[in-house]
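Feature request, filed as a ticket because there's no other form

It would be nice if the structure record came with a short human-readable summary line next to the tokens. Right now we just get the raw output. Example of a typical job, pasted below so the devs can see what we mean:
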Amino acid sequence: MSQSLSRSVVLFGIALPIAALGGGCKTKAQSAPDGLPSGAVPLTSAAPLATSPAAPAPAATELKMAPLSFAPIAKRADASVVTIYTVSEGESRGLFARRDRGRSAKGLGTGFIVDKDGVIVTNNHVIEGADEIVVLLSDERRFPAKVAGRDPRTDIAVVKIDGVKDLTAIPLGDSDQIDVGDWVVAIGNPFGLSHTVSAGIVSGKGRGRDDVPLDPSGYYNFLQTDASINPGNSGGPLLNLKGEVVAMNTAIRGGGAQGIGFAIPINMVKQLMPTLLKDGHVTRSALGVRIRDVRDLSPEDRAHFKLSDEKGAIIESVEPGGAAEKAKLEVGDVIVGFDGQAIDRGTLLQWLASTSGVGKTVTIRVLRAGRPFELKVTLGKLEEPKVRPQAPRPRPAPDDDDENPFGR
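Raw output as currently delivered:
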């Protein structure tokens, strides 16, 4: 976690009182004679929906063993891990100049090289608000960097350094294949202690707003790890035993080193990175609904809506003029499938709906009063706030030796 970060970094979730299901933005749908919206396809024998891929369960007698040493993993990755320093206007007399005693860098974080020509991935909160960014490589070379693209809602950023062609890119793995209990290795710069290595296991998956006090406008689906993570680890890689990045270390709970750290799955990073490099930002599509998880409903509410299990996302309100209203979706409808993908929780629906593309027509599988049907919906554009307020970025406490980090 970046030393410049004074706030927690969190996940997108919706939690309105269930009483809101009776009103809000609900509009009267034009229904077909059987009570379903026009254009709906009733399902008498529902085709199976795809579920998120999972690592195959090992045989009862098979055990995954840790290596005798994590040193080979750390050595292979070391050249790809960088230290990122940021300064703000008026705090520095140049990137590489020594400053007066008692003054310190505005922020400190970690990043990892994904392209030999100088493309580096880190957290948005590491570089947010920075007037100058400098990258320190493992071989002590320093380069000024520019932001190539960033996405505050996922806390993902890409920075670029110029004038290099010989960098070592780190291999990116498949975060869908990592499982709870698998060994992982974290590399970063906690408290400025460069290239610190810690090891642990994946101790949870799918962590969100209810688990960490995250920004409620964000999109997160954290892996949880007990590998030691502290301020300064933000943006660093979390590696599997093959030395592949499976997540990016992002947030901590309990002040750090408590065995509760959170990392953004690398598949999310891989999905957004081409767009960030091309456009510098992410343009999101929108379904036009507010939702909550069916599993958060009381047994009485599930009985009222004739729901037999806890899977899916129930619509709490429909945005006037949005994609959902045009498709005749209603408050109280339960979305259980999106374009062939089974929806277990609302976070998955939010991610799929926001990344599918503006203007794309998708097939939504819905339960209405217990009756399943499918409906075509053409996604709209998610309107971002014109100004996103920035959290304050206080100066970190000076180091004991008060050295200028740019001189190290």
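Something like this underneath would help us a lot:
The chain has three domains: 18-52+285-381, 77-165+391-407, 175-279.
Helices lie at 71-78, 124-127, 266-279, 299-304, 323-326, 346-355.
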